């Protein structure tokens, strides 16, 4: 009896208790029977009167200004400390965020977002909704759309981004094309690309090597032919006549006209495409604004005098483009939401936006900076952006973006490899998308 | 001297035998068992926490219609997700790719490993260096392996294209990573390169255990090199071969890292390299469909266990044949 509760028994009980607590903790955080997002509903976030403390930021690697100067300026202006600012590859961030959110991790306060993730993570209840009083009044609507879903604002934009056309003036001149005149429609674009395609160089290149890239390239040609992804009730309409024709003409760049670099089918991101254009052996690319900075950078074969920029030539419309604006959102599980909101608002100020325009080549999110002559002087392609606002520019960020990207990329890849027809591919994709819409919107 | 030395201990221990069958011996055995369990406990706890818990939790989650992007209730659907698996074309295609990949890498890998081991078992100048070089692919981390082969097979700047064009083997650049079938071939090649060192070492160790006089006897009996290989080498390597089949099958069915790196995290092109493991990742982490993703994971686990069991049964049968 004396030995009934020995040291060994005590150790056994201790280990059992610790194990049970650990397992119990895991289960309570991720118990499916507990329903959706577990964070308490505390309403849209308003600006704090005197936010303080420290924040942790997880961003993609598209901005250099923040580390160079913005963080120091923010800390000096607000007294809030940026405990950690980490950049990750865009293609890896989705899963990283999803894991953090699913674990209800509070170690990250601010996350980078764009239209698709705002919809996806916002609907999941993982992003903090912002009150209207927290949203600056001078923001450009497309930029604000990138951080909104279903009428709710989940963050503030950090830069605007719209694809425009970039061309290599030296290659234009060598092909007896006027280097100062952009192709005005699709036929002129194809003709120019044909003229420039020869041994060792291609008239056109794009990035359809991964799911998101395939979707973006398809959406762009769809809009360029006057089509659209959904009707007002989110019924997929991208398999319309315009859609089939758009995909057919896109495929013909590779198979009929043979002006598209075949490596486009394995290029997985816009950065690689940007570098490819800067190497000087690709005539035309449709890319994000950063392309100008890359193409005129020190390591580029080109410079400001040999890079042309203009509207993307349309098929049945003059032009159209896709939006790639990005922003910052606040994790629902953050313990420093007011301080995090202060960072979001600071990044959207004119001072920071002007630096992003001048130093990085992205478009601003605030109207005054967009219309400031100094901005156009610093970033000539901003003029093209202003022109592009007259034409359709969309992204269709939706909660089912990941699934849509995957299923559409399969169909587009098969079209490009000529194992199916554009019509069959789009009909198939539309049927699957309809299922997705039904699942997510009911 | 030898016989005296070996016969002494049994004589010395003989008087103790009656006592060893008594209650004291049982207590000792029980105490030894408790001690053994105590020693194994830390490892068992780690296994339960790191393997048992996730597996059990995956099984639990697979019973729910749990998609993070759909707020609200997550109803319990029992076997509903598994029923959906049966009719899901994407799962069927992924299963087909997984089996194809496993068949080629397992059978091809083990076959090549046997041949390489036989070559490296022959005494030749530089054999030690060759054996050391064999280990290089094994020392390369899987992610680096994926990046390396991605660069080598790149359609625009890859070495394979440069060499192929230079030697006149290709008329134009081949887009290895743009076509689903070609990408699967590259994946198989990259995986084979990575797995060969381990398998070859395994076979080499087996070859070292075959007595030289067996070959000598075969040669005296007039056996040709091929007959020696078929009649002596292969039967004596049966154990290592079956072990290699078991572990390589498990590894091949679970392949993930090389696919992720090689295809930029897409499992493409046209889902051409989306195996069951990769589909689990896409469904669970990209689509946030946790319940269905868990069901695919559990199904994959069952598949791996089934194949492991199959090989183990074969191993047992072969072993019995060998005994007979």
Automatic annotation (TrEMBL), chain A:
Source domain of life: Bacteria
InterPro entries with a match to the protein in the record: SBP (IPR006059), TAT_signal (IPR006311)
Listed PROSITE patterns: PROKAR_LIPOPROTEIN (PS51257), TAT (PS51318)
Keywords assigned: Signal, Transport
Pfam families: SBP_bac_1
Signal peptide feature range: 1-29
Gene Ontology MF annotations: maltose binding
GO cellular-component term (any): ATP-binding cassette (ABC) transporter complex, substrate-binding subunit-containing
GO biological process: maltodextrin transmembrane transport; maltose transport
Gene3D superfamilies linked to this entry: Periplasmic binding protein-like II
Family: Belongs to the bacterial solute-binding protein 1 family.
Listed name of the protein: Extracellular solute-binding protein
UniProtKB/TrEMBL annotation, chain B:
GO annotations of cellular component type: plasma membrane
Domain ABC transmembrane type-1, first and last residues per copy: 95-313
Keyword Mitochondrion among UniProt keywords: no
Pfam families: BPD_transp_1
SUPFAM superfamilies registered for this protein in UniProt: MetI-like
BP-aspect Gene Ontology terms: transmembrane transport
Keyword Transmembrane helix: yes
Major subcellular site: membrane
Transmembrane segments: 35-60, 99-120, 132-152, 195-215, 236-253, 292-315
Family matches, as PANTHER family: BLR7065 PROTEIN, SPERMIDINE_PUTRESCINE TRANSPORT SYSTEM PERMEASE PROTEIN
Record family assignment: Belongs to the binding-protein-dependent transport system permease family.
Protein name per Swiss-Prot or TrEMBL: Sugar ABC transporter permease
Species: Desertihabitans brevis
């Amino acid at each position: 009896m004396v030995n009934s509760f020995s040291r060994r028994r005590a150790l056994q009980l201790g280990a059992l208790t610790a194990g049970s607590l650990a397992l119990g903790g895991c289960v309570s955080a991720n118990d499916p029977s507990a329903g959706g997002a577990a964070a308490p509903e505390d309403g849209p976030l308003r600006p704090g009167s005197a936010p303080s403390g420290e924040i942790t930021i997880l961003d993609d690697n598209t901005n250099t200004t923040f580390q160079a100067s913005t963080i120091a300026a923010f800390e000096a202006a607000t007294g809030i400390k940026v405990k950690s600012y980490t950049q990750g590859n865009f293609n890896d961030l989705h899963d990283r965020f999803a894991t953090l959110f699913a674990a209800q991790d509070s170690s990250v306060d601010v996350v980078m977002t764009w239209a698709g993730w705002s919809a996806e993570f916002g609907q999941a209840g993982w992003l903090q909704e912002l009150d209207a009083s927290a949203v600056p009044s001078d923001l450009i609507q497309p930029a604000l759309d990138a951080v909104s879903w279903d009428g709710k604002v989940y963050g503030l934009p950090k830069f605007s981004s719209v694809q425009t056309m970039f061309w290599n003036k030296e290659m234009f001149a060598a092909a007896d094309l006027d280097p100062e005149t952009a192709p005005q429609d699709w036929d002129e674009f194809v003709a120019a690309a044909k003229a420039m395609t020869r041994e060792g160089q291609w008239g056109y290149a794009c990035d359809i090597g991964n799911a998101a890239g395939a979707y973006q390239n398809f959406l762009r040609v769809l809009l360029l032919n006057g089509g659209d992804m959904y009707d007002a009730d989110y019924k997929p309409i991208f398999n319309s006549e315009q859609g089939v024709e758009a995909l057919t003409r896109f495929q013909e760049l590779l198979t009929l006209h043979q002006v598209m670099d075949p490596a486009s089918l394995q290029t997985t991101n816009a950065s690689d495409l940007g570098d490819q254009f800067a190497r000087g052996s690709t005539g035309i690319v449709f890319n994000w604004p950063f392309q100008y900075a890359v193409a005129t950078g020190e390591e580029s074969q080109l410079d400001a005098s040999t890079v042309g920029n203009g509207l993307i030539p349309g098929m049945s419309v003059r032009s159209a483009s896709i939006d790639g604006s990005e922003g910052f959102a606040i994790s629902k599980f953050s313990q420093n939401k007011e301080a995090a909101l202060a960072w979001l608002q600071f990044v959207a100020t004119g001072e920071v936006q002007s630096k992003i325009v001048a130093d990085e080549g992205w478009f601003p999110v605030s109207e005054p900076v967009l219309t400031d002559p100094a901005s156009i002087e610093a970033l000539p392609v901003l003029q093209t952006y202003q022109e592009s606002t007259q034409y359709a520019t969309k992204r269709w960020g939706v909660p089912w973006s990941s699934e849509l990207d995957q299923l559409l990329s399969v169909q587009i890849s098969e079209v490009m490899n000529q194992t199916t027809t554009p019509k069959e591919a789009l009909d198939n994709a539309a049927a699957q998308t309809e299922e997705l819409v039904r699942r997510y919107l009911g | 001297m030898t016989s005296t030395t070996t016969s002494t201990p049994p004589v010395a221990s003989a008087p103790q035998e009656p006592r060893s069958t008594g209650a004291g011996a049982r207590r000792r055995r029980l105490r030894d068992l408790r001690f053994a369990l105590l020693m194994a406990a830390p490892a068992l706890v780690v296994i339960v926490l790191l393997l048992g818990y996730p597996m059990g939790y995956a099984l639990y989650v697979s019973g729910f219609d749990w998609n993070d992007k759909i707020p609200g209730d997550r109803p319990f659907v029992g076997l509903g997700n598994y029923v959906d698996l049966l009719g899901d074309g994407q799962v069927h295609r992924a299963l087909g790719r997984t089996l194809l990949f496993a068949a080629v890498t397992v059978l091809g890998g083990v076959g090549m490993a046997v041949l390489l081991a036989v070559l490296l078992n022959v005494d030749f100048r530089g054999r030690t260096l060759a054996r050391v070089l064999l280990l290089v692919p094994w020392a390369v981390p899987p992610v680096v392996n994926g990046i390396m082969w991605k660069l080598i097979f790149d359609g625009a700047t890859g070495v394979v294209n440069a060499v192929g064009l230079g030697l006149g083997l290709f008329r134009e650049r081949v887009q290895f990573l743009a076509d689903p079938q070609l990408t699967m071939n590259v994946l198989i090649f990259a995986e084979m390169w990575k797995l060969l060192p381990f398998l070859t070492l395994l076979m080499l160790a087996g070859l070292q255990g075959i007595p030289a006089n067996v070959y000598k006897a075969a040669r005296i009996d007039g056996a040709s090199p091929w007959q020696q290989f078929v009649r002596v080498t292969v039967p004596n390597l049966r154990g290592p071969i079956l072990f290699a089949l078991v572990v390589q099958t498990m590894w091949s069915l679970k392949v993930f890292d090389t696919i992720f790196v090689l295809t930029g995290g897409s499992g493409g092109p046209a889902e051409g390299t989306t195996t069951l493991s990769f589909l689990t990742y896409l469904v669970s982490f990209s689509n946030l469909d946790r319940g269905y993703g868990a069901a695919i994971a559990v199904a994959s686990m069952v598949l791996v266990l089934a194949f492991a069991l199959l090989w183990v049964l074969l191993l047992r049968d072969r072993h019995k044949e060998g005994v007979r």
